Every structure is written in C-alpha cells, then in structure tokens.
C-alpha cells in the first residue's frame, strides 16, 4: 500500500514538472526510481545523506527529524542511532545527477553539488576573527563576518545549532556592547542585533553583554531612531531579555524614552512579528512583581501614549496571537485606577471583551473576564450606576458567562464569573438581551 501511494505521488510530481517546463502531459510518464526518493518526503533527493543504520535520506528532511523534532532514531527502522550526524552519500548523489541529466527532456534538472555543513572549527575561526577585528575597531570586517554567520545559520537547522553551540551569542553580544560606546557605529550595531535574533533563546552568558547600561541605552536608541528592520530586531532581542531576567526590568525602564519607544511600535506597527514582540515586552513590564508605586509609574507612562485606546482598536480584528498578548497588556494596564478609567470611558472596551469570550482561547477568555470583573468593581467604587452591566448584557455577555460556568474554567475565573452573574442578574430583567439559540437549552446554575 505504501508503495502504491509513493508511485501515485511520484506520478503527480512528474506531471507538475512537465507542466512547469511546457511539456505535454500525454508523454510516457517517468517514475523517479525508488532508490532516489527520500523515505520521509518521498521526493527526489537533492542532498542524499546516510545515517548510522545505513539508510539514505534527503538532508533537509532527516535534519528536521533529528534536530528540529529531537528524534534519535532511524525514521524507517526505528532503531536508535549511534550517531545523529548524517554522512553525505556521494555515490547516490552522482547517480541522481546522472539520472536527471538523462531525463532532462522531462523537466528534471541536474541537482547542484550541495554545500558541506558548517563545522565547529569553522564557526570558532569566524568568531575569533570577529573578536580580533573588534579589538582593532574594524567595523567593515565585523559586518562582513556577521553577515556570513547569518547566511550559514539560515542554511539549515543543523548549521544554526552548530553556530549557537559554539558561543556565537556571547561573542555577538559583547561585540554589540563594545561598539555601543561610539555614535558612529549605527550600521554595525543593527547588523549585530540581526545576528543575535538568529541565536535565540539567549543563554546567561549572552545576556551579560546586553544587560550593560550602555547596551540598553543603544537598544533603546535603535528602537527610537533605527531602520524598520533595526527596530524590529531590537524589540525581538529586548523581548527575550525582559522575559528572562525580571530584576533587570527596572534598569531598562530607567533609560530615557524606553517606555515611549516600545509603545510606539504598537501604535505604529511595522509587521506582525514586531507587534507580537512589542506586546510581550510591554506585558513583562506592566505585570511585574515589584512595588506598586513603581508599577503605577510605568503603567501611567504607557497610558499617556494612548496605548489603552490602541489596544481596543486592535482587538476588534486581530490574530489569535496578537489578541492574547493585547488582552494581557490591557489587563496589566487595568491593574491601576488610571488604567481602569481609560478602559471604562472607552466605548469599545465592553463589546470587544464580550466578543472575545469563548472565541479565541482559554487565556484570552481569562484575561477578558478579569478585566470585566475589575471594571465592574471600579464602576461601583466611583458610583457609576449600572451602565457597564447593561452594555455587557446587551451584547450577549450573560449567556457566555453561564456557559463558562458549565464548560469549565480555572477556579479563580469561575469565582469572578459567578460574581459578575450575580451582580448582572439584578439588571437582566430591565435589559433587552441578545439571546443566542446556542444557549437556550442550557440550565442556569443559580
């Protein structure tokens, strides 16, 4: 059965290739020999390598199996591998190249000779050159070597792991720190940040070079004035730093303009990756376990940028990933009265929060419930009447909260749901609610 599936797939691939080169499909079909097809992808192998079990695979497929998926067995036999380093199968590669040449009229091009994977010796040599040129202040030479390392890291997951394992993060971070002292090194600093994003997540040694006051100042400067790619890479690095070392949060926030630069990346988005990283970095700042006064000061600075209003606008229509992070940041902003007031006065807040209940993810639902619960208590504290309850009920919150009690959620969330239902049930009779047919047969739990 497996053989039949492989043959059908090979025939389809052959037809696709013919169409691409403008050949007629009614020619006699050419089947790729079984020996030339990777057992994992079932495609013609471009870089055949052999494992310790003696079976040949295409390098891209087997390295994904070994290095990305973390397997240490042979994909076909299931036998444990004595070595996870694939060895090039030059014989099979030459046979495939000859077969491609013979079948060129059917659209098969001769596969190029693949580049050999990078070795630890090569990585160490390049890093040593960076250190040497750093000492001499050779900016152009450092840029050249970092670009070369970046290209190698993109070649394959194996090359990337080899680069990371040989201390690239440490060298790049300390080189970044060294060049941060000169205002004339903007280009090399952005290139170094780009290289650092390829060795994420950082180990402790890498972070030591980035947590210095000068490095933090430079990262903030790039966040404010760098190119689009530079700002993107800066926030990716910053997100990693803030999530890994909580005690250092204060040092970053003390850099002039740091809060405003982060908020600007959300207010004026570059791309989805940058927005996600910016929101996560902000989340780590507005929800720390530090003193309330310090947290209040930071949140107030974010509120002054208009971040609360922007988050509500984003939440109207955004991806799941952005939604979860935006709700997390909004919940952090609503941990002080100033943030609650901003959210309470915004016409989008309640409809958006109710909309996200049970529609995005469990964590999005929990954040939404917590914000609604805090807003409800805030409304009572300021004597605001029952406007929030009425608005929430009108957009269908009651039915969703009842369902939340029945389908399950964490105990803390259930407690808050129960409090909201008890308070809003008193108002429900005076409000024309949007009843959903999906919930009409549910039994009330109170």
From TrEMBL:
It comes from the Eukaryota. SMART domains: Ubox. The keyword Oxidoreductase does not apply. One of its GO terms (biological process) is protein ubiquitination. One of its GO terms (molecular function) is ubiquitin protein ligase activity. Keywords: Transferase, Ubl conjugation pathway. Residues 31-106 form the U-box domain. Its EC number is 2.3.2.27. It is an enzyme of class 2 (transferase). Functions as an E3 ubiquitin ligase. This is U-box domain-containing protein.
């Amino acid at each position: 059965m497996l053989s039949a599936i492989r043959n059908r797939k090979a025939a389809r691939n052959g037809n696709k290739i013919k169409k691409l080169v403008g050949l007629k499909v009614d020619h006699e079909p050419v089947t790729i020999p079984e020996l030339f097809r990777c057992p994992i992808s079932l495609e013609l192998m471009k870089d055949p390598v052999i494992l310790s079990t003696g079976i040949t695979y295409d390098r891209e497929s087997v390295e994904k199996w070994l290095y990305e998926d973390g397997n240490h067995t042979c994909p076909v036999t299931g036998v444990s591998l004595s070595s996870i380093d694939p060895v090039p199968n030059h014989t099979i590669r030459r046979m495939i190249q000859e077969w491609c040449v013979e079948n060129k009229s059917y659209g098969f091009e001769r596969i190029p000779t693949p580049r050999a994977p990078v070795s630890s010796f090569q990585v160490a040599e390049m890093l040593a050159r960076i250190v040497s040129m750093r000492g001499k202040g050779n900016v152009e030479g450092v840029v050249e070597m970092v670009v070369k390392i970046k290209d190698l890291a993109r070649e394959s997951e194996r090359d990337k792991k080899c680069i990371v394992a040989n201390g690239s993060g440490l060298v790049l971070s300390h080189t970044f720190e060294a060049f941060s002292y000169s205002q004339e090194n903007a280009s090399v600093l952005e290139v170094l940040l780009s290289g650092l994003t390829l060795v994420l997540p950082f180990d402790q040694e890498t972070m030591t070079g980035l947590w210095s006051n000068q490095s933090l100042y430079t990262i903030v400067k790039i966040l404010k004035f760098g190119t689009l790619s530079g700002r993107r890479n800066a926030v990716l690095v910053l997100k990693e730093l803030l999530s890994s070392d909580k005690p250092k949060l204060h040092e970053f926030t003390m850099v002039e303009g740091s809060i405003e630069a982060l908020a600007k990346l959300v207010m004026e988005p570059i791309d989805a990756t940058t927005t996600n990283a910016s929101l996560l970095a902000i989340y780590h700042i507005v929800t720390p376990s530090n003193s309330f006064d310090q947290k209040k000061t930071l949140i107030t600075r974010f509120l002054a940028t208009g971040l609360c209003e922007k988050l509500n606008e984003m939440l109207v229509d955004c991806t799941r990933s952005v939604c979860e992070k935006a709700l997390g940041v909004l919940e952090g902003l609503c941990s002080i009265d100033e943030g609650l007031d901003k959210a309470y006065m915004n016409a989008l807040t309640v409809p958006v929060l109710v909309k996200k209940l049970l529609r995005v993810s469990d964590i999005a639902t929990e954040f939404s419930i917590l914000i609604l619960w805090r807003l409800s208590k805030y409304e009572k504290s300021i004597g605001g009447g029952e406007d929030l309850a009425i608005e929430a009920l009108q957009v269908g919150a009651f039915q969703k909260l009842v369902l939340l009690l029945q389908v399950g959620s964490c105990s803390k969330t259930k407690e808050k749901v129960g409090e909201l239902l008890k308070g809003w049930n008193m108002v429900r009779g005076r409000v024309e609610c949007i009843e959903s047919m999906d919930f009409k047969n549910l039994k009330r739990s109170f």
